[in-house]
């Protein structure tokens, strides 16, 4: 069954509204019968009505739900979970918070099924009794998970045969209760052993000390640090209000729907404190936890950015679709997202990505989990669209890297029914039936396309009982009757191209020089200034320099990965070179990719082209395609060439500025006429580069992405 939301789930639950408080005796007011766990008082179970009887097995049990099994005859199953927060008090000012769980039960199936089995088996052996007078019995498992512990208990329940009739409810059972930590997020499951249906599950968010009006009754809340959040322009302030000199712990982490939280930053500090976050660090799942540095202290957790529009924008910028060969994909994101995905067909002219006709419709997806494509083969023109709230958020042609650029193919949609099979061509104007007299590109060669499908010259992308998808090449039909004219045009174009090459070789300054794409990790503002100084100094050499610092608007519109793809393709097609500028941050990121297969997307900014580029740069190095296409460089005083991972040293890595002559020669290529002017150009680049390098190697400032107020001890 699906997940239910906990009743009374409210971060501020006053007494009498979801939280029962006061001194409560074990089992008081819980029905006519009860059973208890002697090892964990005040845990108890009681059936409130309808003649149910129960027994709580001593001790915890293993949480092993197993697979769903078919049932024969009537079975008792849980149908709904409810929770209530309860204060258990030894004294009025000495209480603990716990979760009381109510399990609603129902009977599924009929006695007649077992009776028929008994009659059928009577010939096999005597003595089979009719089951109608026997009580219906079930073992119900109740699982309680609050990071980092999990507890399961086993409840044996019996229903008199007279009441064991199919219906919406046969009664309910109360487990009283699970002790829980303040501010925790707990998940509760219930299922039978053996299982006859999917388990029920429910999430309960417990209030912390700030969310309870009864915090005076909980001693651990008395000395708890208080946390407030304020927003000022591009910065967010976390204000920790504690007394002078009180020591406390502060942790920033990403909350995960599945699995353990992922830590980001942790410090032990002395109060009071102000922590400043950059707005680019905000994510909906970014949470803050604070606690006094005392034994068994209560931790207060809050996730203040769940509804922050900036945090949601940052999350979508960090989300990245990833192809998982042979037929899967995954949406990588640091937080959970409510998203749907579908496939579309991108035509080479750069227009809208055409939605595929049924049955490939939108489907809900779960981030960071593998998804399956209903495809037989991939194609460069197939793209994934990810949408949220009827708004298109992402579009990625996942096969473009492995299968090459977009092709001039037409997508044919085959529709089948018991009496007929038809084909249509997917075009911007709709799906054009074939054959057709319509004035569209596909209709003009419709007969040839149908022949190609029959002869197996089209690639089948998808197939099932309802239809199929075919990708058919169109290039052989374009201007077939004008082949000689095209041949003449191509010869003329080739002659002009050779002439242009001669001009470029003769005077590269007039042609703009060789193209160079600079990639770097934005460690801090000083390093970005240093990269900008280098890029500016290289332009007059001449070189046509591309760097993300000069393309912020384009980078924000396209996203870092799409921007990098376009720049890399253009650079390599024109015989240019990609320059990897290594820094401590770039080296750390390369090690993450080499060790884990992917970097953590949330630790890098939404405009970090270096982080986005590694998914394409690494295959070039691993497959030996990097020499002649890539160069490396690092700056003296910031990083030694030996610190660059060995995989990237398969291409020259220059130390600047001492190796500037060799670096400039490699940038412009072997045919560039540098002799006679090399010394002047080295001096020009050094004059521009040296002040920025001197400023960058000064003692670093505070933090990475955040600053601390005075007295933190982290400066």
How is this structure best described in words?
The protein has 715 residues and is an alpha+beta fold. Among the domains are: 3-111 and 132-211, Interleukin-17 receptor A/B, fibronectin-III-like domain 1 (Immunoglobulin-like, Sandwich); 223-310, Immunoglobulins (Immunoglobulin-like), CATH 2.60.40; 512-696, Rossmann fold (3-Layer(aba) Sandwich), CATH 3.40.50.11530. It contains 14 helices and 38 strands. The protein has a six-stranded mixed beta sheet with strand order 1-12-11-8-9-5, with no helix packed on it. Strand 31 (459-464) and strand 32 form a beta hairpin. Helix 10 packs across helix 12 and helix 13 crosses helix 14. The longest helix has 24 residues, at 483-506. The radius of gyration is 34 Å and the shape is flat.
Q: What structural class should be given to the helix and strand makeup?
A: alpha+beta
Which fold name fills CATH's third level, the topology of one domain?
A: Immunoglobulin-like
Question: Could you give the distance between the termini?
Answer: 52 Å
CATH superfamily of one domain: Interleukin-17 receptor A/B, fibronectin-III-like domain 1
Shape label: flat
Helix content: 10-25%
Low-confidence stretches: 1-44, 118-130, 506-510, 598-603, 700-715
Numbering strands along the chain, what is their spatial order in the largest sheet?
1-12-11-8-9-5
Biggest beta sheet summary: 6 strands, mixed
CATH class of one domain: Mainly Beta
Mean of residue pLDDT values: 76
Q: If classified by CATH, what would the architecture of one domain be?
A: Sandwich
Estimate what percentage of residues fall within beta strands.
25-35%
Task: Work out the number of β strands.
Answer: 38
What is the rounded Rg?
Answer: 34 Å
The number of distinct helices, counting runs of at least 4 residues, comes to 14
